[in-house]
Design goal:
rod-shaped, alpha+beta
C-alpha cells in the first residue's frame, strides 16, 4: 500500500518539482516519564530559653576585695585562714550581685529550614523505530505515534 502511494506521488511530483515532502507516522514502542525533583526550603525561627552562662567563672574583683579584708582581720597564722576565707566570701558575694543584675534565662533564636521535595513530570521520552533505526523524541505528553517528515529528492 505504501509503495503504491509513494509511486503515485513520485509520478505526480516528477512533473511539477524535484522534491516531495511526506509525513509518515511511526508507532511508539515505549514511553518513559522524564521526572524532575523540586526542593522547596521554607525558613522558620526556632527559639529556646537557656540559662545565662555569664555568671560562672572566676570573679577576680570580689576575690581581691575579700582577700584584702581577710588580711586585715586575722593575726599570725589566722591571717592566712581569714585571707582564704575572705577570697571565697568575696567571690560568692560578687556572683550573687551579678546574678541580681543580669537575667538568669535568655532567649536564643536560630533560623532553620523545612525542606519539601516534590517530583513533577516534565515530559516523555518516546522510543520508536524508523527504517530499522531506534530513535527517541521528547514530547510534553505521552504519544502513541510519532510524525516524521520525509523529503524525497528526484
Amino acid at each position: 500500500m505504501k509503495k503504491k502511494i509513494i509511486g503515485t506521488m513520485l509520478c505526480l511530483t516528477s512533473l511539477l518539482s524535484k522534491e516531495v515532502y511526506m509525513e509518515i507516522e511511526a508507532p511508539v514502542i515505549k514511553s518513559k516519564k522524564i521526572i524532575k525533583k523540586i526542593v522547596k526550603r521554607t525558613p522558620y525561627i526556632d527559639c529556646q530559653y537557656v540559662e545565662n552562662k555569664k555568671n560562672e567563672g572566676v570573679n577576680i574583683p570580689g576575690m581581691l576585695i575579700g582577700g584584702i579584708v581577710g588580711t586585715q582581720l586575722g593575726g599570725g597564722t589566722g591571717t592566712i585562714l581569714t585571707t582564704v576565707l575572705g577570697v571565697k566570701v568575696g567571690s560568692e558575694l560578687e556572683k550573687k550581685t551579678k546574678k541580681n543584675q543580669e537575667n538568669l534565662i535568655k532567649k536564643e533564636c536560630v533560623t532553620r529550614y523545612r525542606q519539601q521535595i516534590k517530583t513533577i513530570i516534565v515530559g516523555y521520552k518516546n522510543h520508536f523505530v524508523f527504517e530499522g533505526k531506534k530513535l527517541t523524541k521528547v514530547t510534553e505528553q505521552k504519544e502513541n505515534k510519532i510524525k516524521i517528515k520525509v523529503v524525497l529528492n528526484f
